[in-house]
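Pasting two entries for a bug report.
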Amino acid sequence: MTTTATAVGAGADPDAGRSVLRQLAIDSGYVLLGFPLALASFIVLIVGFSLSAGLMVTVTGLPILAGTLFAARSFADIERLRMPAVLRQPRVRPNYRTAEPGASAWRRIFVPITDAQSWLDLAHGILKVIISIGTFVITVAWWAGAIGGSLYWAYDWTLPTGPNDEGLHELLGLGDTPVARIGLNSALGVFFLITLPLVVRGCAMMQASFGRALLTGVAEMRNRITVLEEQKRAAVSAEATALRRLERDIHDGPQQRLVRLAMDLSRAQQQLASDPEAARQTLDEALAQTRDTLAELRALSRGIAPPILVDRGLPSALAALAGRGLIPIDLTVDPQLGTRDGRPDPAVESTAYFVVAEALTNVAKHSRATECWLAVTRADRTLQIVVIDDGEGGAHLSKGHGLAGLADRVHANDGTLSVLSPPGGPTEIRADLPC
């Protein structure tokens, strides 16, 4: 049995390695390309909407309005493709209302008109030009100042100057000399160059945040509601599975022993007067049944909430769990998880312990493994659990298997569980829990 504890540092932020120049290029391209796209969407959508409003008294106004909304959706999809690089977030696309199969032409026309997200797309396509003009002008001005100012020394001699010309360097009282003129303009260029990434980033974020609010805000809220509903269902399912398992274990173990204990005590009571020696033997058997029952109850309690987990934290609880394993277990755990400042939330601790306990139980019962490796670390506010065995493989998360309940328990805590177990092994169970 090998049990080790090693400290593991927090993982690096995946965005920390982004190059400033690369992000500057992304933000600049986003802002500069956003202006012609905003101008095109404004022209198309304002013309379509005005035309449909003018013809609304006739039948032709509704199809034009529907077509305008579909055009707004196309421009919105283009913007949704461009925003993730700036916001550093996954692409989100709303679920638009669709007509039922076999619906009439008029029904298909009314579907986009009654869809709230289509109107948000239209509002974005029309109003975006206001923000795009400002961000475009600022970005172009800052790029011009950075390039023109920092390279002013290279082309100063080509600029015509007259006796009546008065530059900024003279207005500031620096004197009418080439050194003052070049020095001031170069200093301004350096200022624009240093602040260029920050200013362009601000312009890109302003434009992308406006797009996110109208184009993906409702979709993100709906997705979050869906995730919460799934987590609730997973939590209910996990608790129901745990209760059914506890009931089964109590019925098959302690309850049967208690029934036999009651029968032994009743028999000993009857034998006490007629055959004291037999009564003593029956009481000895009853005492053995009591010890076995207590041992089973302790085992059940360890599977629910072991006292060592509450008192000493996850590292000690996992070490005790690995020490009771039927096969050698190599344990690697971050010792910071057992300190006062490093301990995760009690719900996360309990789930992590449950994951490890269930995984080790499956390894002992089904894998036919000869060795197991367990690693519990924290990286980037995520508790990572990896259990690997050299068994015969074939484990999966389908319903009816023990790992399915494990997946529900992890999902209820907003985590993910993955199982990689090809036939012949090895098997890797990985759980990631936010903490």
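Entry 2 (this is the one that rendered wrong in the viewer):
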Amino acid sequence: MLNPEVLVQLHHIVGDQGLRTDVLSLQTYGRDWTKIYEPAPSAIALPKSTEQVQAIIQLANQAGFKIVPSGGRTGLSGGAVAAQGEVVVSLERMRHILDFNVQDRSLTCEAGVITAQIQQFAAEQNLFYPVDFAAAGSSQIGGNIATNAGGIKVIRYGLTRQQVLGLEVVTGQGELLKLNHGLVKNATGYDLRHLFIGSEGTLGIITQASLQLIRAPDNLTVLVLGVPAFAALMQVLLRFQASLDLTAFEFFSAEALHYVVQDQGLAKPFATPAPYYALLEFENDSAGREQAALQAFQDGLAQNIVLDGVMSQSQTQAKALWRLRELISETISVYTPYKNDLSVRVSQVAEFLQAVDQLVAERYAAFEVIWYGHIGDGNLHLNILKPATMEKAEFFEHCAAVNEQVFALTQSLKGSISAEHGVGLLKRDYLAYSRSPEEIAYMRAMKALFDPNQVLNPGKLLS
């Protein structure tokens, strides 16, 4: 627990509304969406400025307490869990959009701004912020950057990293860095900005970001297709990519659709049953685009790689079709899923999923498996549902026992054991399946450089 004198100093930094120690706050701010770890922070600090963040980190170095940075806490790897008496530093009071430049098409904001708020602001300027995912309504931009968030439109627009023009960061030593200043081109040596993107709050706390906005897409149209086998999904992807620039290509299994339809009260996209479903999105900005999509659909039917399909005729219908995919994670969360977030090169996806699916069927014979993901960029989400009669601890133990085999398959294809959810606590001890000893040694050296007293997010990413 914190020394009472330290609590007094924290109170002096953040004020009456910026420090919480009540049980409800400790439980709420001490966890993320991971269901494995129980929160046990000592206090919650809610700064309102970069200067206050800097003062908190400097105090941590002096007094010897540890800090867990906290955004929207929507992560799935335990990266925002405070389980060892740490002080949680939540940026939720730093929610201001500070600047917009129409010529640069850039926006500068504080790290606590909600992702959907940035999307809405961009839309009001007739522009577009392309990073999007189911948690956009609660995730914060600082956390998105700290985990290099991906989502549903990576196939067209890339990860969060591609949108970050500049950062303001307080390092683990309490030093303030202002990185890249919103420049598009800057060839003056090491770009430290990219060290903090994806660092999971282990090197510094991001307090401000400058983001690139882009042209708003025109008339986004959605197709949902029934597909007879997973290998056919990849053939569908190739066929549609040959004639369209897709903004999304998602997939989900019949089991995933079953839960969304059953628990959310949604209608099936069409009557024909299918073991897998593909969701495609494209800019339908001309008659030629729509005709190309329809022709690809007809070709798919003729080649038996598509069983049935539906195409949105309005933005309302497009949003309704997207809900079939976006509500999967929320829907199955009540069944205590054990999640793995894996990626390989797109050309290896079919081989990889079949190998993992076979392994899981053998080792998890009594468990229900739910597949979905962003296969347009090589990212698969494997979800194992806890049987209602099994205790949580026993279930997680069973799942962890198979991890090494799943990760060994991933390693054999030079893939990633965490495509977009980060490493955190959940994947920390498996990092060597995706990173070489030399890489890990350099990562440790960077941690020691930026956070020599190990005050930031202890035990996350690196053991």
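Dev reply: Rendering is fixed now. As a check, the viewer should reflect this: The mean pLDDT is 95.
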